[in-house]
Design goal:
single chain, Hypothetical Protein Aq_1857, Chain: A, four-stranded mixed beta sheet, globular
């Protein structure tokens, strides 16, 4: 089981954690929503709970709850800039389909 960050994503997280002055790493999860079933949820990890799994990728802690891990195990998180737009992108090997707008996915 693993969640990994590209160097670009790790740099983005490190820079934002340094700017805000606190936080343990990146919290990644999913929630039920959208037309395909699930959407990614990204936030700062402020604590690590008993049901959390912690991965170290590119020197950044990635915290994932047990329920989410079943849906996103093996995911690589990237951070991309295209013109004026910038966003995290997810390469999840478990995805069976995505909605047309790209906001949700099915496993």
């Amino acid at each position: 089981m693993a969640i990994t960050l590209t160097p670009s994503a790790a740099e983005r997280v490190r820079n934002h954690l340094a700017a805000r002055g606190h936080g343990l790493g990146l919290r990644l999860g999913v929630r039920k929503t959208g037309c395909s079933g699930y959407a990614y949820v990204i936030n700062y990890a402020e604590e690590i709970g008993a049901a959390d799994h912690v991965f170290d990728s590119e020197g950044v802690k990635v915290v994932v709850d047990t329920d989410s891990l079943a849906l996103i195990d093996g995911t690589e998180v990237d951070f991309v800039r295209q013109g004026l737009n910038e966003a995290f992108r997810f390469r999840n090997p478990n995805v069976k389909g995505e909605c047309g707008c790209g906001e949700s996915f099915a496993v």
